[in-house]
Amino acid sequence: MRTLTRGLIFAISTYMTLGVGAEERAIDGFLSGNQLLEYCEEENNKCYGYLMGFVDTIFLTEKMLNSFGKILGPNAKRPPTLICFPTSSSFKSAQLRQVWMKWAEDHPEHLHRNASALALVAFEEAWPCE
């Protein structure tokens, strides 16, 4: 059941990210995948800052979802975790760049889309939750 739910959420997020839905939204983020790729090719602080900020946002979202679950009670349903990053003691920001660069190079046809949505897909593929 968890695999089915996770697959459904991933399919919907991929559609919203890569499909028609992403082009119909009025606000589509501040940075495109092409811009993030440029920052990361230069290996500058903009690249690392963006990717680390993305991860911090994912962690914050997880904490908020856990808190809401406590407020709503033990029977409350929450979306499954999409990205299971390595433990913080072994996790380095350079890994984020490597994963992003590999994904971007493998999927250049999507880089005109929102960078944060693309990062979500790239990191979920690299660090899926079992």
Structure write-up:
The protein has 130 residues and is an all-alpha fold. It has one domain (2-126). The chain has helices spanning 2-18, 20-24, 33-41, 45-72, 93-106, 115-126. α5 (93-106) packs across α6 (115-126). The model is unreliable at 7-12 and 14-26 (pLDDT under 50).
Radius of gyration, taken over Cα atoms and rounded to an integer in Å:
15 Å
Distance between the amino and carboxyl termini: 12 Å
Helix content: 55-70%
Order of helices and strands, N to C? HHHHHH
Record the SSE blueprint.
Elements: H1 2-18, H2 20-24, H3 33-41, H4 45-72, H5 93-106, H6 115-126
Task: Describe, in short, the structure shown.
This protein has helices spanning 2-18, 20-24, 33-41, 45-72, 93-106, 115-126. It has 130 residues and is mostly helical.
Entry keywords:
130 residues; mainly alpha; 6 helices; 65% helix; 0% strand; elongated
